[in-house]
């Protein structure tokens, strides 16, 4: 599932994000959502979140077990 809809993302969810510094390379970082930073219901590049380790990035994919 992609990370473009805010309603799909909530604290405690495991996601893959792209950090600002990795946008050119497309390198993904996996983590657990702590806060949602995008206030709109939809964002074409992914909802911006803060991970539990403090890193901020846009959700590319929601990890489903």
Characterise this structure.
This protein is mainly β. 0% of the residues lie in helices and 38% in strands. A four-stranded antiparallel barrel has the order 1-2-3-4. A hairpin with a 4-residue loop joins β3 and β4. The model has no long low-confidence stretch (mean pLDDT 95).
Beta-strand portion reads 35-45%
Q: What kind of sheet is the major sheet?
A: 4 strands, antiparallel, barrel
What sort of overall outline do the alpha carbons produce when their principal axes are compared?
globular
Class from secondary-structure proportions: mainly beta
Number of DSSP E strands = 4
Uncertain residue segments: none
Strand order of the largest sheet: 1-2-3-4
Average pLDDT, to the nearest integer? Answer: 95
Task: Give helix and strand order, one letter per element, not per position.
Answer: EEEE
Count the DSSP helices. Answer: 0
Return Rg in Å: 10 Å
User: In whole angstroms, how far apart are the ends?
Assistant: 12 Å
The amount of helix comes to under 10%
